[in-house]
Input
Amino acid sequence: MDFGRSDRWRLPTAIKILIAGGFGAGKTTMVTAVSETRPLRTEEILTQIGQHIDDLAGIEGKPTTTVAFDFGRITISGDYMLYLFGTPGQERFWFVWDDLNMGALGAVVLADTRRLADCFPAIDYFEQRDTPFVVALNCFDGAREFTVGEVRQALNLEPEIPIVMTDARRRDSGREVLITLVEHAMRRGATPVGTMS
Output
């Protein structure tokens, strides 16, 4: 009797992906929208003590902030199991980024066009570490619309870095962003961590 591994029972390849960007860009929303499982969220209520630290211009209604990371999971085509880690957006929590980035295939930099400059630290971080990334423009209701070319110029991005429009609230939109990232990372020669066992 052959107890070897059968293709029929092959497990999906595990891929770690970061969802990064500025404070209030929609990272928690995106992880929540696309995750197949109930996501882990480490959100805390914003307090008056943090008012002098937290810049709420343009996002005045935001009541919470991620203090560690968000975690979700999604299967793509049965071949890939994506583990999503939403990074904290505020500078005082950036110390966790190095740990989260270890073993990541790549990252989505979620950009809020109302506060576009807030995604510069994430772009700089991934460029310095040669981590493949895509920029996803989160289309907020009522926000000024920019063309991909305008955003590429404003962020000084190389032509090969994909920029995609997204609505972080919609599962199908988030899935398209993730597929774009995986394809971009693999074109750059990145390889998934390995098969789960």
In short: DSSP finds five helices and nine strands in the chain.
